[in-house]
Design brief:
It is a single chain. By secondary structure, this protein is of the alpha+beta class. The chain has one domain: BirA Bifunctional Protein, domain 2, CATH 3.30.930. It contains five helices and nine strands; from the N terminus they run βαβαββαβαβββαβ. A seven-stranded mixed beta sheet has the order 3-4-9-8-7-6-5, sandwiched between helices. A two-stranded antiparallel ribbon has the order 1-2.
Length: about 210
Amino acid sequence: MEILTHGLSSKFENFTALRKPIAPAVELSNPANIEYEVVRTTLLTGLLKTLQHNKSASFTKGFKIFEISDVVIPDDTHVVCESIVGARNSRRICAVYAGPTSGFEIIHGLVDRIMTLCEVAPEQAYIANSGKVEEEKFRVAREAYTYTIKESTEETYFPGRCADVLIRTPNSADDEWTKIGSFGILHPEVLKNFDIQYPASCVEMNLEPLI
């Protein structure tokens, strides 16, 4: 189910509730209330609040929601107009699965599906681990675009059950990988902060390098 969430958030929900340190963000000088302190730097907060406010819905078959929208990142370097405004938009995709099980394999499969649709091929070592060597012969992929995953250390996720998504483009050096997102099982403290009573997994990725 696709959703559209609010572009403003509180510092607590945008950072602390996700077990992240408070980082620079575009702040409102005179927010209407505490929930509108900063412009969001992640889509995950909005998705988790959606689950929080729909606890009466049935989770027995799993609850799947996603959003494709922009976040705003402080940036004094990349200028897209004649004046430096100190921030830039970044197009993201974020998806959450919550249900009787964590759904890690569902989110992992979604990551691979997104890459397939964006015509980005997996690295050879990743193909070998997946056991889909024969299937890869029929993949349509852009030249010199590859991706892989590696274990993540982000504290939003359960330790050992999360990964970063890395890509290499035609402009990358031979051993240069760029992180575009991460996925995994959400940490129990994150679920508690948003009053979510079921295990959940999520993915959030920057789409701009892929399109």
